[in-house]
Structures
1.
Amino acid sequence: MKSIEKRRKTTTSTEVKRRYNDKVYSKVQAELPKEIVSAFRAKCAGKNVSQASVILEGIEKSPPTRGRDDLGQVWDAANRVTKEIAGAAGLSQRKPAEHFMIPYRTMEGKKKALD
């Protein structure tokens, strides 16, 4: 019986653990203000949940329509001419120029450059 009690626990080397983690896991890093990180850590600790589980839940609940569709919409909006923007808003072409305090002739020049 004494031989069982004296049996030494085996330890896994740091190198073996690092190789396993490199094989199984990937890192995701984000630089955030210290206040946000502290609040996130405190909230996770207060609810007794892991930080990884909170992030995973956020990914799983994120809206499914993300990615190329969104980028396409941004591209389309950014490349609309003044006439289209004003028309969609039900305004004359002069109204956006007045609203944004841009000389109308400048906006006309932009329109001609895009045509």
2.
Amino acid sequence: MNLIAFIQLSAIVFLALLALTVAFMLLTRRINLNGLLRDNHDGRLSPGRIQALGITIFGGASYLMLVLTDPNSKALPPVSNELLAIVGGSHSLYLTGKLGSMLQRKFNFNRNT
């Protein structure tokens, strides 16, 4: 086994063990996911967090599919402009919503008036 193959195999084993460790910790509730999709201030479900999480999972899965389509490639495939625009736009909307809610709390704007 040459050095490059050894490094590739080591990286694959490391990532697999890391994924198994995270999965085990999630299943045994050592990683707390309570409130992950809820707003920190009022406890309601946050549409921005749901959107950001969904788009992130979609983007990661899309890129993983690109990687897996050519497993013999010597380099990672380029990230498409469309994927960058979708993920970047989604996270920009999320951050804009966070800024709006922060300013609303700071200046005590009330939606009911």
3.
Amino acid sequence: MKNQNIGKRQKHIPLQLCRRMKDLREDSDLRQWQIAEVLQIDRSTYAHYERGKTRPDLETIIKLANYYGVSVDYLLGNDSDTAQREKYQPRIPCLVDVSFNFVTSHRSY
């Protein structure tokens, strides 16, 4: 009897990734659509990530880690340092920050 999975790529989605994505979002009092906007994806796509129906690509995982101020290892479940989770601060850009960065980066000396 042949193994029917030979040659097919298995989509393994770490359960820890799904849990941590949801926990970080909820701990930040954010909705799925808000994180989806940050990632520039549809809300339904983000919902599939949290439920483990689809796997986010590496770029998306990196964006999430940067947004929450945690390591990619933490998101993937390879780092169980709970102190890292407690120190995260979501980076929610506001108009003042964007304006300040624009002004300071365009100074002429």
4.
Amino acid sequence: MNARIEFFEKLAYPGLASRRLLLRNWTANDALAFARLHSLLEVMRDPEAPLSYAESFAKLGRYKQSLEQCGFGRWAVCLRRTGN
């Protein structure tokens, strides 16, 4: 099994898993890809506008905080096989 997935399975909120996908808490490793995604006009067409990297990092922080404090919120989705 991928070492990255093993790490997430040991967290207090390990997430949910199917045969193909893993829903897990956000990590610092997700921040750059999250910010890149939210900076794209095609992705952010329905919301007001694309986000700056600083705005995306703040948003990701709120997602993480919600999961840690409440036990629910938005989770990261990755392929179970690769952890990406």
